[in-house]
Amino acid sequence: MTAAGVEACDQCLRRAWLVAGLSAGIERALGRSPSRRAQELLALPDDELTAAVAGGEHASVSERARARDPGRLRAAVAGARAWARCRHHEAFPGGLGRLADAPPVLFGRGDPALLTSLVSDGCVTVVGARRPSSYGRELATLLGRELGSARLCLVSGMALGIDSCAHEGALEAGGFTVAVLGSGPDVPHPVRMRRLYERIVEHGLVLSELPPGTGPRRWTFPARNRIMAALSAMTVVVEGRERSGSLITAALAVEAGREVGAVPGRVGAATASGPNQLLRDGAHVIRGGQDVLDAMVGVGVPVASGPIGTRATALPPELTAVLDEVERGAATQDAVARASGLDAGPVAAALARLELAGLLSCDLAGRYTRTALAVDGRGRGRPD
Asked: Among 85, 148, 338, 121, which residue's Cα sits nearest to residue 140?
């Protein structure tokens, strides 16, 4: 990447580096509750932002920011093998540019030509808990696969848990996925997601409003949520608590005039409280990619078949009986045998076949749980 890949005006570049230089001051100003106040600060003009977070040094900080050499800033972006597009560039996503606190610059890794593909009605943001249930992981991966197969762009934050599962699913389906980071575009976070980061750079885009080399802070994550929400026509929450970054993203989507969907969860489960609250408030019920397409495009537009199947074939009666008992709560081989009235041998064989088909998972204690995979011919046709 050369400096020619940095297509951003001087004013926007200086603003982006000003925000990065004030990052520690913004952290102090926001304290331990940065969720919404970060947006308020980022909407301030340069001098007001500096005065709000730099205290008595704001005059000298403002002067140094105005004196920054744009040529050196462009060289820094190119040196990080990144690119930049400011909000005055024709490729800057329109939905993002209409925000009152729109980022002045998008810094990125990956093919910058893909930026023109980020039209909001072709993108879906999927977010959720960093410590999801196994069901949540399966559902997020499946949702990523189905959206990727339907040639929708999947947007998420590359966080542990739901975000990374959704990215993985989209990549498995050969789809287009975008990671919006709370750090510079050359700073994979969390570090353990580096391999996923590299795959997204290779096949999709990594975006950030922060210049290369900028490390993450508490406030940068809720701040990047507004970008994730504005890029897409719909934000889907898979799992999350009532007070979580996922619900912040959903609220930002509503403010931006976007649709919100949520995956129903078990009543009483902590990670289901957020999505269930959204459903109570009128969010779309999302059980899989088809529900997203129904909400965005219209009922009946099918999810395309990807390279990895999302449904099992119709089951014979003996497997259906065993699967039904597991769904009703029978978690062990003995429990299934008692509930179904079948002999232990046929039950063991059926459980093994259902596990191989991806319809059940078994933990080290021998307890079976239902996965998110649906079965054709059972009247469901989508994740349970």
From this structure: 148
